[in-house]
What does this fold into?
Amino acid sequence: MDADELKRLYDAGERDFTGVNLSQLKLIGMNCPGINLWGADLTGANLAKAKLWGANLSGANLAKANLTRANLTCAQLEHANLRGAKLQHTKLYGANLTGALYDESTKFTKHFDPLSKNMQKIST
It folds into this structure.
């Protein structure tokens, strides 16, 4: 699936994209609140400035994804792989990050405490 197809289907009312492969796609500024990307492969995807509030990203592979300035307010990110992801200035208010994986290369906003969100650090 490419970015244009995702947007077309979302605009047509589809919300369930469980397990879809979106790795390496440029999804900058994507406006898809409430989308279900459970278990999706978003490895290396560029989601900078994406509007994904209330999205289900549980179990998604977001390794090395760019989520800079994305809006993930109230998103579900349980057990998501965030190793090497860029999360600077990302809105995570009310997001569930329980069990989400991160490592030394994951970039968070200054003063963000992943342990207080029950995230799990993985040694590389």
User: Anything to note?
Assistant: The mean pLDDT is 97. The domain at 1-124 is CATH 2.160.20.80 (Pectate Lyase C-like). The first strand starts at residue 86 and ends at 87.
